[in-house]
Design brief:
The chain is α+β, with helices and mostly antiparallel strands. Helices cover 46% and strands 16% of the residues. β2 and β3 form a beta hairpin.
Length: 425
């Protein structure tokens, strides 16, 4: 029995390592879950902010002057870009004018101080080229009116009243047109008359107009959030049909990020629950059966092959007429103990006499005109895992005799060749 007891020691040591690994994984998962919860909370806030921003985006674009105001704003931005480009060109032009003047001065001095008696053809050609250049008509680019026009454009001295354009036509219907009311789409309710405040807003200072628009937008967002108003179309065309906010690209991307984070959190929580359940599960004395979990042993019994997977399931595999059909005989449910009184076979394989550890496998495939299959696995001490015998004690109720070092030295698990009672390891 020395070999069997040594193998049991190895199983117990392996079980302790596995248990510690699971404990470490639980600690890691708890840390990951806390971080994931923070991430989900942040993404929920981000999604809410994106939905609010996108639901108000059209209002903000068209709230001051409708479509004409939007176009005026775009034109203003474009002119600003062109003004910056003109400033760069003007600066480069001034730099080039200074360089040309400097070169002309150098060449003029060179011609004046040139010694005509010096017989150098290269110098003579340079002097003649300068004389030809000087004799040609020089265009005067220093037009005063043109320069003033450049300066006016660069300095923004224009006559366009952008605020007037951006306000647009007060009679134009826009996204904040007060002709919309909270009973829109409900013809049975009375039609509300337009509030004169927004008609008068065109005559208010720009900063006050902006404040009024923002207050209206916030109020409208509250109505949308509470289901009183439908979401506006995300199109810049006020006449376009209403589009659900969920179809908005920015909202979809925020929703995708949030869904992914929630899925990760759910997976981590499931994994944590499974590992906690596994840690709390009964794997026998000192968790000795934990290293055996889901490992399988089998017995060839002629017509059938029986496969036992520790803490898993038992399967009956038919070999009749070349068929390979499988019957689920049961899944592991719990530990049990049984009393046996049997003779040990000559080869030393048998249960012997006394209490024995047993495993119950239940809820197998349903038998025709009978119960669901079940198996009582009775264990005895042996040097290796081995199925010794399978019997059908009554219809679809089986008993399987199995040897394993996992029960050696434990009261109720002593088999042939081992002394009864508890043996210290």
């Amino acid at each position: 029995m020395t070999g069997a007891l040594q193998k049991k020691k190895e199983l117990i040591a392996s079980a302790a390592r596995l248990r510690q690994e699971i404990s470490d994984q639980i600690v890691d998962l708890e840390t990951q879950i806390k971080a994931s919860e923070v991430k989900v909370s942040q993404l929920e806030e981000e999604k809410a902010e994106v939905e609010k921003r996108e639901s108000l985006k059209v209002t903000k674009k068209t709230g001051s002057g409708g479509k004409a105001g939007v176009l005026a704003g775009l034109a203003k931005e474009r002119i600003s870009e062109l003004r910056d480009a003109l400033t760069d060109v003007k600066e480069q032009r001034e730099s080039y004018k200074e360089r040309v003047a400097e070169l002309e001065t150098i060449l003029s001095t060179f011609k004046t101080e040139y010694n005509p008696n010096f017989n150098d053809e290269g110098v003579k050609r340079a002097v003649r080229s300068w004389e030809d250049y000087s004799a040609r008509d020089q265009t005067d680019y220093s037009d005063g009116e043109r320069e003033q026009g450049y300066d006016a454009l660069v300095n923004g001295e224009e006559t366009i009243d952008w605020e007037d354009f951006e306000r647009g036509d007060p009679t134009e219907e826009s996204d904040i047109d007060t002709r919309e009311h909270i009973y829109q789409g409900q013809p049975s309710l009375p039609t509300l008359t337009p509030c004169p405040v927004f008609s008068l807003s065109a005559y208010l200072p720009g900063n006050l107009q902006t404040w009024l628009s923002e207050q209206y937008a916030a109020f409208r967002a509250t109505l949308v959030a509470n289901g009183i108003l439908a979401h506006r179309s995300t199109s810049s065309d006020p006449s376009a049909p209403s589009t659900p906010l969920s179809d908005n690209k920015a909202v979809q991307e925020a929703s995708t990020r949030l869904t992914s984070a929630r899925n990760d959190l759910s997976a981590q929580e499931r994994s944590l629950s499974e590992k906690r359940d596994d840690l709390a599960k009964d794997y026998g004395h000192s968790d000795v059966f934990r290293p055996l979990k889901e490992t399988c042993i089998s017995l060839d019994a002629g017509e059938y092959t029986y496969e036992l997977c520790w803490m898993g399931r038992i399967t009956q595999k038919s070999k009749k007429n070349g068929a390979h059909s499988n019957n689920h005989m049961g899944s592991y449910v719990r530990f049990d103990t049984v009393t046996v009184d049997e003779e040990v076979r000559a080869d030393g394989k048998g249960l012997g006499r006394g209490e024995r550890t047993a495993l119950r496998y239940e809820n197998g495939a349903h038998c025709w005109n009978g119960p669901n299959r079940s198996v009582l696995v009775v264990l005895a001490c042996a040097e290796k895992e081995e199925v010794w015998k399978v019997t059908e004690e009554e219809k679809c109720v089986y008993r399987m005799e199995v040897g394993t070092p996992a029960v050696c030295g434990v009261e109720g698990g002593v088999g042939a060749g081992a002394p009864a009672g508890k043996e210290e390891l």
